[in-house]
Specification:
Length: 279
């Protein structure tokens, strides 16, 4: 009997020790390894959100509060001098040609009575009075026909830039004094522009080159009218130029030196003419 109890106690002790070791091992593993995550099914609620107004990309800045500004009051001083008004430019009328100039013009036959035509324009301009900037300024161009005895046969207005200037020019033409006979003894027909401007004194002509022969006019040597037999035309001026130059030199009167004003205007005219070609 005592032997059975001892074996029973030993078996009981071993059983308890084995169970205790298993429990200790399970507990140790539970402490070291994390508990397994519990998978919860995902639930999505599709609820409609309330509509909201759209905001602009660049919100407008609030307007600043209006500030009442008092305009400065300008007090005029009665004793202060007033601003001077602009005075229009004026130019007195040139002097009329003298009796000596008219006598020289009456014998000048070159270039369609060049001196006579210039003196006529100066006579009209001198009788039109002072040129004033504004309405009393402008240009008017005439076609004039003067009889052989110097009387005016016809005056036609080709164009004008001012009615006032046109009336003044016509009044001056009607009131012109008697003129000398034309240089050639024939009616003189020409066109003339009369300028009533506060900055224009006229263009005195140059007479030193009037004795030179006129340049030969160009004629196409191969021109053909289609009816006659084609033939080459001799260019004009190839043979007759020396004879004309000799005749002009023999008939050329003593012109005399040109005035300083005429030389100055001629250089100014050439500068404007040739300077515009380089632009």
């Amino acid at each position: 009997m005592p032997g059975v109890r001892i074996s029973f106690l030993v078996a009981l002790a071993l059983s308890l020790g084995g169970h205790a070791g298993l429990l200790a091992l399970v507990r140790f593993q539970g402490l070291t390894s994390p508990p397994a995550a519990v998978q919860v099914p995902l639930q999505v609620d599709f609820a409609l959100a309330p509509a909201q107004p759209m905001k602009p990309a660049h919100p407008a800045r609030p307007a600043p509060p209006e500030v009442e500004r008092q305009k400065p009051v300008r007090v005029l001083d009665a004793n202060a001098p007033s601003a001077p008004e602009k005075t229009p430019a004026t130019l007195a009328a040139p002097s009329a040609p003298t009796a000596e100039e008219w006598q020289l013009a009456a014998t000048y036959t070159l270039k369609n009575s060049k001196r006579y035509r210039y003196n006529w324009g100066q006579q009209v301009r001198s009788m039109m009075g002072t040129a004033v900037e504004g309405e009393r300024q402008g240009l008017v161009r005439f076609r004039i026909e003067i009889a052989s005895d110097g009387t005016l046969a016809r005056a036609d207005v080709l164009w004008s830039t001012s009615d006032t200037v046109e009336k003044l020019a016509l009044q001056a033409i009607r009131a012109m004094p008697p003129l000398p006979p034309t240089p050639t003894g024939k009616p003189l027909v020409f066109e003339k522009t009369v300028a009533l401007l506060p900055f224009e004194t006229g263009w005195p002509p140059i007479y030193k080159n009037d004795c030179l022969p006129d340049p030969a006019t160009f004629k196409n040597p191969f021109a053909w009218n289609g009816g006659s037999s084609p033939r080459r035309v001799q260019p004009a001026g190839s043979e007759a130029a020396p004879s004309r130059a000799t005749a002009a030199q023999s008939e050329c009167p003593d012109i005399g030196p040109d005035s300083i004003e005429a030389e100055e205007k001629d250089m100014e005219r050439q500068f404007k003419e040739w300077g515009s070609l380089g632009k």
